[in-house]
Amino acid sequence: MEAPAIYTENLTRRFGELVAVQEVNLRVAAGEFFGFLGPNGAGKSTTIKMLTGLLAPTSGTIQILGLDLIAHPVEVKRRIGVVPEGMALFGRLTGAEYLNFAGRMYGLDRETAASRAEELLDFMRLADQPRTLITDYSHGMQKKLALAAAVIHGPNVLFLDEPFEGVDAIAAGTLKTMLQRMTERGATIFLTSHVLEIVERLCSHVAIIDRGRLVAQGSLDELRAGVLAQNRDTSDGREQKLTLEQIFLRAVGGAQPAGQELSWLS
Amino acid sequence: MAELRHSSRHTGQLTAIARLRWQLFLHSLRTTRGTAELISRIFIGFVIAVAGIGGAIGMGVGAWSFVSNQSPQWIALLLWSIFMFWQFFPVMATAFTQSTDSSVFLRFPLSYRAYFLVVVAYGAFDIATALGSLWLLGIWCGVAFADPSLAVWTAFILLTFALVNLILARAIFSWIERWLALRHTREILGIIFFLFVISFQFLGPLIGHFGRTSRPQVTHWGAELSPAQRVLPPGLAAAAMAEFHASPLLSAGYAALLACYGVALLGVLHVRLRAQYRGEDLSEAGARSDSRAMRPSVRRGWKLPGFPVPIAAILEKELLYLSRSGPMLFTLIMPLVMLGVFRVGGSGREAGLLTRAPDFALPTGAAYAVLMLTNLVYNNFGADGAGVQFLFTLPVRFRQVVVAKNLAHAAVLAGELVLVWVTASLLYTPPRLDITIATLAGVLFVLPVNLVAGNFLSLYSPKRIEFSTFGRQRAPQTTILASFAVQICVFGLAAIVLWVVPHQNGYWLASLVLLCLATIALGGYLSSLNHLDRLAHRRQETLIAELCRA
Description:
The complex is a heterodimer of chains A (266) and B (550).
Chain A: E1 6-15, E2 18-24, E3 27-28, E4 33-37, H1 44-51, E5 59-64, E6 67-68, H2 73-79, E7 80-83, H3 95-105, H4 110-123, H5 139-151, E8 157-161, H6 169-184, E9 188-192, H7 196-202, E10 205-210, E11 213-219, H8 220-230, H9 244-252
Parallel strand pairs in A: 4-9, 4-10, 7-8, 8-9
Antiparallel strand pairs in A: 1-2, 1-3, 1-5, 5-6, 10-11
Chain B: H1 10-28, H2 32-68, H3 75-96, H4 112-124, H5 127-146, H6 151-180, H7 183-210, H8 216-229, H9 233-242, H10 248-277, H11 284-287, H12 309-323, H13 326-332, H14 334-343, H15 353-356, H16 361-377, H17 388-393, H18 398-427, H19 433-460, H20 477-500, H21 508-548
Helix pairs in contact in B: 1-4, 2-5, 3-5, 3-6, 3-9, 4-6, 5-6, 6-9, 6-10, 7-14, 9-10, 12-18, 14-16, 14-18, 16-18, 16-19, 18-19, 18-21, 19-20, 19-21
C-alpha cells in the first residue's frame, strides 16, 4: 500500500500558554489537491510551517512521502516545494537569478537550472523584465516567482500558503493551470486559502481547522454528506448541494447571528 | 442607509492627526525595543537641548559682538550657518530612514487647506526647526542687547527668515519625498550622505594642513562671494538688519525681497502638494521600466571547482547582493579612505601618522578592512530578510549555507587586501615582503576567529538589514559588545606578537608565530561548523521571526 503523501499524528504546537495547533491528524493521499481551510488565527500557517520544517512541533509525528520529517529533513526537503507565508524571496536578485539560485540549491545542474528558470519565467510572464530586482516586482509578480521557485525541481509535494492572495485574475489563471498540470502528473498539492471558490473548484479534498483543532476532513462530497446528516432534522427534505462556503461556515460556526447589525446602518 | 454625518471642521481633523501621532508614539513604547528607544530619545533630547541652548548663547554672543563693533552685516555668517543646518539636516536625516509620507492622510476627506497645514505642521515640530528657532532667538537677544532700537525690526526680520526657512524646508522635503519614494533615488541620496560623512574625515587633516598659515586668496574669495550671498535669504535678512539705521528704505526693500522669497516658496510647495492632493502615484511600480526588447536568456550559474553546487550558488548570490548594495560597498572603501586620511598632513612633525611610519600602512589598512567586514560577518543573515525562510526549506545542511557566506566574506576581504596593498604602495611606499607576509598571517589568524564569533552571533542575535537605506542598521547591542571584545583580544594578541617577537631582521619570526595562531584559529573554525546545524535548527524560529518582520 502506498504511503500517504502527508501524514500527521497528534501534531501539536504550543507557544507558551497558547496551543496554536492541537493534536491534528492529517492524511493526504498522493496526487490529491488538498485544501486546508480555517478562519484567521486558526492555525493554518503554523501547521504548514511544521509540515515544511520551518517550525518544530511541540509533539506529534510528521511524515512526508513516508519519510519522517524530523529524522530525514534533507531528504524530505528535496522532494517538496514550498511557498511560505511572506514568500521568502531574496529581494536584491532578479527573477532569473533567483530561479537559477533556487534550482541549483535543489540540486539541479547549472544547465538544467538555467533552462528551467527561463521556461518558468516565460510561463509566468515574468520574462519581459529581466533586469528588474524582485524588490521592485508587484505583489502578484512576487507570488508567481515564489511559486516558480517552489516547482523548479519538480517536487512530489507542494505546500502553498495563500498562493492566490493579492493575485489578479490573469495571474491566478496561470497559477491554477500550472497546479492542475502538476496534480495530473501525480504531484500532491497542499494549499491554504481564504478564497473558498478557488478551493472548491481546484481541490478534491479539504480539511478545516478551527482554534487549532481539525473540525472536518475529507472529500467535498464527504463533507457535504456529513453536514447534511447533521442537519437532517432541520432540513425540509429537499436535496440541496451545499457550497464549500456553507460547509465552512457550519464547520467553524462562523455565520452572522440573525439580528446582529450595525446600529447606524439599519 | 443612515445619513452620513461628517465633520468639515479642519480643527477636528488636525486634532485627530495630532492624536494619532501621539498614540503611535505611546504604542511604540510597549516593546522592550520601544522602551530602549525612549531612553535613547531622552538622551538625544538632552543632547539637542544642550546643542540648542549652547548654540543660541554662541549665536547671541556673536550677534552682540558684530552689532557692538558696528559690523552688523557679519550677522550674515550666523544666518547662513542656521540656514544651511535648517535645510540640510532634515534631508540628511531622511537618508537614514524611510520617509514619513504625509500623503497617507489623503484617503480621508481632508480639504486641500487642511492637508497643506498638516504638511507644514509636520515640519514645524522637527529638530531642525526647533534648533533653528532657538538659535534665531539667540541672535535676536544678542542684537537687542547690543542695540535696543533694533529689537522690533530684528524680531520681524528673523521671524520672516524663520518662516522662509520653514517653507523652504517643506518645499525641498516634498520634492525629496517624491524621489525617496523610489528605491534607486533613495540609494543615491544615501551615497551622497555617505560621501558627506567621509569628507568629514578629511576636515581635521586639511585644517591642520591649510589652517596654520594666512591664505590671502581665501579672503579674496570671501569678498567676491559677499554680493552674491546678499541676494539670498540669509544675506537679505542680514542686510535688512544692517541697513536699518543708515537707510530704512533700503532696509525695507531687503525685507520685502525676503518676504517675496517666502511667497515664491509657498508657490513651489503649493505646486507639489496640489499634485499630491489630486492623486499622484509615487509607487515603485510607476517607475518600473524595463526594455522589453532586452530578453537575454538566463545565464548559467557559477561553477567553482572543488565546491558543491549549493555553496557555489550561495557564494554567487552573496556577491551579487553585495554588488547591489551601494551603502555596503561604500563601507568597504573606508580602509582606503583611512589610508588617505593618514597621508594628509604637512611634513616633519606635522606629517600624517603613517607618513612617519609607512611600514605600518599595510597592517593598518588590513586591520580597517577586517573591522569593516565585521558589519557583514556579525549579521550574516540580516540582508536576506524574509529570504532566510527559503534557506530553511532547502535540502542542504545549514553549515553549507554558512560556509558559503563565510567564503564570500573571505573573498571580499581578499579583494580588499589587494586594494589596500596597492593604495599603501601608491600613497606611502611598497610594503616590505616580511611586513606583507606578517600582515597576511595576521589576517589568517584574525579572520577565522571573527567568522566563528560572527556565525554564532548571527544566529543568536540577528537583525534585518535594509540594503537600500543607511538608517536603523545598528547591530544589536550584544553583538556590538561581543564584537568589540573579540577585536580587542585578536588584534591585541597580534600586536603583542609583532611587538614581542624579535624583529631586528624583519618580521619573519612574528609571521611564523601568527601562522601558528592562524592554524589553531582555522581548526577552531572547522570544529565550530559541526555545531552549526544543531544551533541553526534550535534558533530557526527566532531567526525567521526576527528577519521576516516587516
